[in-house]
Amino acid sequence: MLPFALKAVWFGLSASGTLSCWVVLIALARTINIWWLPLLYCSVVTALEGIFCLGMIYHMDPFQMPDAFRLAQIFVISFSALVLTGVALTFIWATTASVIWPESVNGSAKSTLSWRHVYFIPLLVIPTVFAVAQIVLVVTLDAYAPSDNFHADVTGHLWICLLGYAGMPMIESIPCFCLTVYAGMRVAR
């Protein structure tokens, strides 16, 4: 079992990191005059860290957490991680697309990062589909037994983790990597 002092330090770092995230990204939003992306990122980080920090009620001991809270932690952490991946994908797509197709933007940050309806796919559709699929499998296969950890997580049938933060971000990063390489080659020409 992990010592409580370590859990308390982790809690403090998580809470202070979340507050710092808000300060920095609000400053970024003011600078580039785009609010939707930084506020979405901060809100999702707050949900992610919030459900993690709420575990302090149970001394961050999954053995003391009720089943409903453990399931909520698994779902919110997975969904939040997938939405954060979607935010990164959206940012990468927007900035790289402005390099590949410069005629589609006027060169300003506001034009490059302006909202497009296609962003619903990485920000809402993909996270919802995979987080719901993961939680359905977790409940169906009873894969959420308590373990010695800071938070509740999938404990049985670990392949289920691949639908959440352990697999989908890697898979989603592959097209972004290819797009970035292509943009880099285009700039180098």
From TrEMBL:
Transmembrane segments annotated in the record for this chain: 6-28, 35-59, 71-96, 117-137, 157-183
Keyword annotations of the record? Membrane, Transmembrane, Transmembrane helix
Task: Output the superkingdom of the source species.
Answer: Eukaryota
Task: Supply the PROSITE patterns for this chain.
Answer: PROKAR_LIPOPROTEIN (PS51257)
For this entry, the protein name equals: Fungal pheromone STE3G-protein-coupled receptor
Query: Which species is listed as the source?
Result: Athelia psychrophila
Its lineage opens with: Eukaryota, Fungi, Dikarya, Basidiomycota, Agaricomycotina
